[in-house]
Design the sequence.
């Protein structure tokens, strides 16, 4: 009896070892799967993007220079683009900030020539400069440019020194003056950090055009400035386009017609 | 020069504890004000998306600029071998460190995310002048620390001249760096001038020496040690030269801006129609902060300690006004998206930005002065920074 009991104990132990080994193998496979899955998903996303109209084949490629062309001569309500931007990024949810403290990624600027009386309106957002002063002055590298030319802020690295806001000639950046809640999933925003138009990277990476472009009724064209066959390049080649404060030689990625 | 004995200030006195308590209180109030601003966010301040850097920056930059200037007295002694300044060299180095600490505290606590200091210390963008400044400030602390050591530890005295030279060169680069924070902002007319860097250096000479004289006279008065006219009058004559030099730079800065058409707008704004900024420029910076002190320092009554103290206080107030005009006035003047055109928008394009300093901002700034003076109070009691006497009989080579 004693021997039998011993045998049973040994068998139990063997089963336990078997079970734990099996668990280990399953666990490993599951862990490996979990590790690989996001990469596969990312790969699929990247592949899916190649199907989009924006020719972003290999992620943010330095062969691409994303930009926008704004036709100010078109009679559109630019405020629709502003509203679309605010909705996309969850802006305008400040409770305590004064008006001059609230974030605006895009604004409508009214311009009047004092001499001739000529007036026009145009939307102004981050101009996504090639030689961006905000990136030069940022001490931590939080202000950065993707290889495809989109200038954006890494909210996790920004220390809130606001030097980029001092340096930007377009007044394109805002500082978050209060605790924010109910942010949108796409646009993390936090008190004490600087933020600005990011050309809707969240949409672009999914193969969609920026929110302001979509709401502009064709008055803003988005695309690859480096691709001679793109609509934006063709329009610029045919009708030309101007950059705001081109004299500063920052080579913005946003062009305007009719200014 | 006769042999000087350096002595600590007696710490166990009512006067010492009074000053210790007072400066601690000012420092703590400043830190609490910063906590209030950080906890709520910057909406509780006067700052906004137009006036991005407010009153804390005025205080912080004043203290940092004054820090490099306070080191001048030591430099004159070690680098230019002027022996009358040698007894003051230790205080000069220590005050420079104390001023820099106060200034950096204010600068740091005004960040949107001061809790991310570790990011600023580990992630660098070497194109940014701010990044250079992080190294310039920490390097200044280290070099001046070594310089003080060579002065105060007898076996290393022979290295004082070399360390002093290093500190002198470093402080020139440091103030160039501080001035350059503004000097390379192409977008803003007020700052788009290479003249800002040398102007900041000469401002540092003036503000730093004014602060040094006040601290020196204060320390010797309250510790009842002798402070002879020989040293004080040398310092005050030098201070007058520095004030005049700042005036010269201010004149050249505005005249060169008037010369180029695209900078006339900002110059007219500061000089004639800028409201509070025009008032601060003419009344506080030029008249109260420069002309009146010059008159006080060089008038027949110029040797009167009260007059020298008053002149120094006015120079500091004028210097704060000067930085307020440069920093806040420079931001208030609108940037030109379309030069020559009238622009307007919901984001305050084309209009002079409004700004009123809030109480917490001012308290944080004053807290920076509190920290500086607290450090000085502790330092003079702990180490031998001050000669037991600076009577003329000891310092003046011509004294009988």
Sequence:
């Amino acid at each position: 009896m004693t021997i039998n009991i011993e045998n049973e104990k040994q068998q139990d132990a063997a089963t336990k070892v078997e079970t734990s080994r099996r668990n280990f193998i399953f666990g490993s496979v599951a862990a490996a799967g979990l590790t690989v899955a996001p990469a596969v998903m990312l790969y699929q996303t990247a592949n899916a993007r190649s199907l989009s109209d924006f020719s972003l084949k290999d992620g943010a490629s330095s062969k691409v220079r994303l930009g926008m062309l704004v036709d100010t001569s078109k009679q559109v309500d630019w405020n629709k683009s502003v509203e679309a931007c605010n909705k996309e990024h969850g802006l305008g949810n400040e409770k305590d900030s004064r008006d001059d403290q609230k974030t605006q990624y895009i604004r409508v600027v009214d311009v009047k020539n004092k001499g001739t009386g000529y007036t026009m309106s145009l939307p102004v957002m981050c101009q996504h400069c090639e030689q961006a002063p905000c990136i030069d002055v940022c001490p931590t590298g939080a202000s950065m440019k993707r290889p495809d030319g989109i200038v954006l802020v890494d909210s996790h690295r920004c220390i809130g020194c606001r030097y980029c806001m001092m340096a930007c000639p377009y007044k394109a950046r805002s500082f978050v003056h209060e605790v924010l809640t109910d942010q949108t999933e796409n646009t993390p925003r936090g008190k004490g950090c600087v933020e600005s138009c990011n050309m809707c990277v969240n949409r672009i990476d999914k193969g969609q055009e920026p929110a302001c472009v979509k709401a502009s009724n064709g008055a803003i064209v988005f695309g690859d400035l480096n691709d001679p066959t793109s609509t934006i390049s063709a329009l610029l080649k045919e009708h030309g386009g101007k950059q705001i404060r081109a004299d500063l030689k920052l080579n913005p990625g946003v062009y305007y017609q009719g200014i | 020069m006769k042999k000087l004995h350096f002595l600590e200030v007696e710490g166990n006195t009512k006067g010492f504890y009074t000053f210790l308590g007072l400066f601690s209180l000012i420092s703590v109030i400043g830190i609490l004000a910063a906590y209030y601003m950080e906890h709520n966010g910057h909406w509780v301040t006067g700052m906004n998306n137009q006036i991005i850097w407010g009153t804390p920056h005025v205080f912080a930059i004043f203290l940092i600029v004054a820090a490099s200037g306070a080191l001048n007295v030591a430099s004159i002694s070690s680098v230019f071998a002027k022996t009358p300044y040698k007894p003051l060299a230790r205080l000069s180095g220590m005050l420079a460190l104390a001023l820099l600490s106060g200034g950096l505290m204010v600068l740091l606590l005004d960040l949107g995310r001061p809790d991310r200091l570790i990011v600023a210390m580990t992630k660098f963008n070497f194109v940014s002048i701010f990044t250079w400044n992080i190294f310039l400030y920490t390097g200044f602390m280290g070099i001046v620390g070594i310089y003080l050591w060579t002065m105060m530890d007898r076996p290393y005295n022979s290295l004082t001249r070399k360390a002093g030279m290093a500190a002198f060169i470093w402080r020139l680069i440091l103030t160039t760096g501080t001035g350059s924070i503004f000097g390379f902002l192409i977008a803003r007319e007020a700052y788009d001038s290479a003249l800002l860097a040398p102007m900041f250096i000469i401002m540092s000479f003036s503000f730093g020496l004014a602060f040094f004289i006040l601290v020196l006279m204060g320390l010797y008065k309250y510790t009842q040690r002798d402070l002879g006219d020989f040293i004080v009058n040398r310092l005050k004559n030098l201070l007058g030269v520095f004030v005049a030099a700042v005036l010269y730079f201010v004149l050249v800065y505005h005249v060169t801006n008037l010369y180029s058409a695209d900078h006339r707008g900002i110059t007219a704004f500061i000089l004639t129609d800028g409201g509070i900024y025009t008032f601060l420029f003419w009344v506080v910076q030029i008249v109260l902060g420069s002309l009146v002190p010059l008159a006080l320092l060089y008038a027949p009554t110029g040797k009167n300690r009260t007059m020298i103290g008053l002149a120094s206080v006015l120079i500091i107030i004028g210097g704060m006004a000067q930085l307020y005009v440069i920093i806040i006035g420079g931001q208030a003047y609108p940037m030109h998206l379309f030069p020559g055109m009238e622009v307007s928008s919901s984001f305050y394009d084309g209009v002079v930005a409004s700004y009123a300093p809030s109480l917490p901002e001012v308290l944080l700034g004053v807290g920076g002065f509190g920290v500086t003076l607290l450090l000085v109070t502790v330092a003079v009691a702990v180490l031998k920074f001050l000669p037991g006497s600076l009577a003329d009989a000891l310092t003046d080579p011509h004294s009988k």
Remarks:
- The mean pLDDT of chain A is 85.
